[in-house]
């Protein structure tokens, strides 16, 4: 069965979601977990606690938050498993609709990407 990563991008500093969304998500995630679709996931802390390692021209440097340039950040993620891509898309649409219904003032993008099961091929130098 193909696995997918769903994640939510939203404006930094959007505030906490309303309690109604937390309750709806608890129900939804419980149902998806019972069906074997939801494997793992959760919300992420803000970028003020983030640590990045930047690689440029063969040099690695550590950059700690906060990041003044961050306008849109990943707010949460889920590892999901579906039988088909169509089922995964329908599930991600349902997830996005929960946000539209229970947090209508939120602007966010719910992204779905399939997880590669094959190792990447090396690039020719």
UniProtKB/TrEMBL annotation:
Organism lineage string: Bacteria, Bacillati, Actinomycetota, Actinomycetes, Propionibacteriales
Domain YCII-related: 7-90
Classification via InterPro entries: Dimeric_a/b-barrel, YCII
SUPFAM superfamilies noted in UniProt: Dimeric alpha+beta barrel
Organism: Nocardioides koreensis
Family statement drawn from the similarity comment of this UniProt entry: Belongs to the YciI family.
Superkingdom assignment: Bacteria
Pfam families in the cross-refs: YCII
Protein name from the UniProt record: YciI family protein
